[in-house]
Amino acid sequence: MINDRISDSFSRVRNALLVGKKHVSVLNSAIVKSVFKVIQEEGFIEDIKENSDRELLIKLKYDKKGIPVIRGISRISKSSKRVYYKCKDFDGMRRKDFSMFIVTTSVGVMSDREALRSGVGGELIGKVF
Description:
The protein is an alpha+beta fold. It has helices spanning 5-19, 30-41, 87-90, 112-118; strands at residues 23-27, 45-50, 55-60, 73-75, 84-85, 100-105, 108-111, 122-128. The strands form two sheets. Strands 4, 5, 6, 7 and 8 form a five-stranded antiparallel sheet that branches. A three-stranded antiparallel sheet has the order 1-3-2, covered by helices on one side. The longest helix has 15 residues, at 5-19. It is globular and about 40 Å long.
């Protein structure tokens, strides 16, 4: 049994990128689907499809030279140590490396940019760069 589906999904994506796969299957849940929807909206992955009730099929995105668009994906807030940010903390968080943060808020899962625009804070789920 997997306790943290988000960490498991991030690991599967990282491993698939290392071997150059075009698709990766991750375990389906509402939070995992929301997280990958945000990543797709930010342009880091091409498509998300429900393979079955239990699996999502993620189509990874590569540039014209075959280099993955996602250079790294990591979990920030974990079950052992939760990380929360206020809305004002998101201002200036984006770095020059075009990274984005995934935040779960009272209004749903969104990117740090959306959270700043909406004026809400929340738990920092992960970082994609």
